[in-house]
Amino acid sequence: MESWREERTRSVEDNEMSLPSLAAAYSTILRGLGEDPQRQGLLKTPWRAATAMQFFTKGYQEKIVDVMNDAIFDEDHDEMVIVKDIDMFSMCEHHLVPIFGRVHIGYLPNKRVLGLSKLARIVEIYSRRLQVRDSYENTTRRQRRVTDESQTSHRRVTDESQTSHRQVTDESQTSLKHFQIPASGKRKRHF
């Protein structure tokens, strides 16, 4: 069986069991920063931070096969399908800081197409894991065997208004372009 069908390293039950130890770790971090975790404004912060980190890394508890949900359709064409501007959010494994970016995916359907919203969901699964910025591009390319291009960047969070992020959802902005593959079979770089 293909590795992407089996991949899952964390379950919902794992999240529940590890939440107290993650919250305790955030209390330790607050103390290390010179803060008092028992201060009124910080009482629930360790728990909230632990829950947020689990959400930011939820890709570890999802499998592509669950997301695809039989959304592969037989279609009588071999045109390249490109989905552009899929927003993505990840966490740098070196500094635990956010990585924001956009992903563009192109693939040759070989008479079988995947629902466009599923591509955005696959991006979310792989982006919601700790990684270095450059590895995201290789992960998607290796796992889905598609041509993809990622535009990512670290952002230094300087105030609360910059901490929000846009989730990748089925309603993400995507653009679809079809390109006829030359009869000679040579593939061109279309994006």
UniProtKB/TrEMBL annotation:
The keyword Nucleus applies. Pathway: Cofactor biosynthesis; 7,8-dihydroneopterin triphosphate biosynthesis; 7,8-dihydroneopterin triphosphate from GTP: step 1/1. The keyword Nucleotide-binding applies. Residues 24-134 form the GTP cyclohydrolase I domain. It catalyses: GTP + H2O = 7,8-dihydroneopterin 3'-triphosphate + formate + H(+). GO terms for cellular component: cytoplasm; nucleus. It is found in: Cytoplasm; Nucleus. Residues 136-169 have a biased composition (Basic and acidic residues). One of its GO terms (biological process) is tetrahydrobiopterin biosynthetic process. Belongs to the GTP cyclohydrolase I family. This is GTP cyclohydrolase 1. It comes from Scophthalmus maximus. The lineage of its organism: Eukaryota, Metazoa, Chordata, Craniata, Vertebrata.
